[in-house]
Amino acid sequence: MTNESRYAPFFRLLPGIPHMQEGHTPYFPLLVRRLLQWAQEKELLGGMTKDEIDLAASLSVYHDIGKSMLRPTLLYKQRLSPQEYDEIKLHTAWGEFLMDLAIPELRGTTIHRFACEICRYHHERWDGGGYPDGLRSWEIPGYVQVIGLADAYDALVAPRSYKRPLSHQMASNMIVRGDCGAFCAPLLMAFAEHAPVIQSEVYENFPAAQE
Predict the structure, then answer these.
(1) Is the pLDDT of residue 99 over 80?
(2) What global pTM score does this model have?
(3) What topology is assigned to 3-199 in CATH?
């Protein structure tokens, strides 16, 4: 059974589910797909099939839907107070809630689980320093760790109202140094190994910022 036919019931629902693409480049889903493939080559995704990898990549664009429940002014501020940052962090739980609300008929399926896990866990970090649940190590699904890394990287190179875009080299260095939180070492290794490919192929048509 092909990916398209297997997940057809879900894909028919996609147009009715909002997603927050603002603050990301149009190349984010491709970055996720490539990183998932490289992570699979390093056996970081367990027994995920190609169909499941494709599904996770397709669902990744919905990771921030919970931001639609926040005050819009929070999303454009350069500096947040501790209280405001706590409000921002609620978008993960809101995202899980909204996704569950959007596809209740798919509860109990891989599709539903992936969609909710991506929304809730994409800010969890390897050392337990993420949110909302402080998960650590392999408590965080491997494929969600990949999406979390892609989210951090793409946000760095994308222009936002409160910051200039960073160059690919600067963004890569920040990810590897742990400036965006801790990721598992083999995943970081896969990312670093393919950093030139990410810049030359994934973001081939994206005007990178200068050093």
Answers:
(1) yes
(2) 0.90
(3) Hypothetical protein af1432 (1.10.3210)
